[in-house]
Specification:
binds ligand DP6, 10 helices, 14 strands, single chain, alpha+beta, eight-stranded mixed β-sheet
Length: 324
């Protein structure tokens, strides 16, 4: 029996992924672009053993009860490796769970690496990213560090729906400041929310059609290390996604009043000369893109806003790796 531990970091999309072209293989309808965050990680240990009765998943010291997605993912790894044995998975996040921060990206990226190595497979780079995507779309990006692009691809088998690194973590000193406005799980999970949006929003075709332009704009901004241009397309993609979500039936409203207040606060900071740009995922937390040397100041400002539960800040971090 081989026990392997892997760590992967969370990521925040600047150009958002929302919508699937295939639900079974989890193929995205649109590409995306993200930053891998050093400060937020998941560490996962996997062992396959014939003596285990069934898969056992221990999350932060407690036996997890609702784990069909993890078991389905382990089944994929077993099929790839030709294994029949159950697995023991032990996993923990270094960021507060229940803080409403997405952990499926770092979670499935760490699981993909630990489980394949424990099963005797040696997947790396795009092969590992492709597998992680089958667990969660955003997890494909957490295989790589720094700035990462995810391709929607157009092949039915998903072979081209993978992420690729764009910039290494040290190539551009950016940071993300995360203001937690409310704890607790999100109202509607990403998968259900995406499917509802695709099935009911009249704006969905326009969202898909306009995505390539946003990605091009972001890539040009990154190549030129132009934070003003990157910030503009980041906010555009975020607000376009939330407008799209609101146009679903029933609507998906992930924000709370403090989310709105922080969006306005960040716009004010910009008018005052502090470069900061908002992005928001399928929950009420506000993530702020800025230069690394401005992060501490922005962290203090957002932390002082009434109602903010906590503030975290991170520079860009590495891709998924095995922990010795
Ligand atoms: C709003 O990757 O969590 O954070 O593929 O269904 O697991 P599944 O969805 P997930 O969706 C992330 C959506 C988002 C935007 C993004 O990260 O690009």
């Amino acid at each position: 029996m081989q026990r392997v531990t892997a760590r992967a970091h969370a990521n925040i999309a600047l150009v958002k992924y929302w919508g699937k072209r295939d639900t079974t293989l989890n193929l995205p309808a649109v590409g995306s672009l993200s930053l891998t965050l050093e400060a937020l990680s998941t560490t996962t240990t996997v062992a396959f053993c014939p003596d285990f009765e069934r898969d056992r998943i221990v999350f932060e010291g407690e036996g997890a009860t609702h784990t069909p997605r993890i078991v389905a993912f382990l089944d994929r790894v077993r099929r790839l490796a030709g294994l029949k044995m159950p697995a023991e998975v032990t996993t923990a996040n270094n960021f507060p769970t229940g803080a409403g921060l997405a952990s499926s990206a770092s979670g499935f990226a760490a699981l993909a690496l630990a489980a394949t190595r424990a099963a005797g497979l040696d997947l790396e780079g795009s092969a590992l990213s492709r597998l992680a995507r089958e667990g969660s779309g955003s997890a494909a990006r957490s295989i790589f560090g720094g700035v990462v692009a995810m391709h929607a691809g157009d092949q039915d088998d998903g072979r081209d729906a993978v992420a690729e690194p764009v910039l290494s973590p040290g190539a551009w000193p950016l940071a993300v400041v995360i203001a937690v406005t409310a704890a607790g799980p999100k109202a509607v999970g990403s998968t259900a929310g995406m499917n509802r949006t695709r099935d009911t929003s009249p704006f969905y075709p326009a969202w898909v059609a306009s995505h390539a332009d946003d990605l091009d704009e972001a890539r040009r901004a990154i190549a030129a290390r132009d934070l003003t241009a990157l910030g503009a397309v980041t906010e555009h993609s975020c607000f376009k996604m939330h407008g799209l979500m609101l146009s679903a039936r029933p609507p998906l409203l992930y924000w709370n009043p403090l989310t709105v207040a922080l969006v306005q606060k960040v716009a004010t900071l910009r008018q005052e000369g502090l470069e900061a740009y908002c992005t928001i995922d399928a929950g009420p937390q506000v993530k702020v893109l800025c230069r690394a040397d401005a992060a501490a100041e922005i962290e203090a400002i957002l932390g002082a806003e009434p109602g903010v539960v906590r503030v975290l800040s991170s520079r860009l971090g590495p891709g998924a790796h095995v922990v010795p």
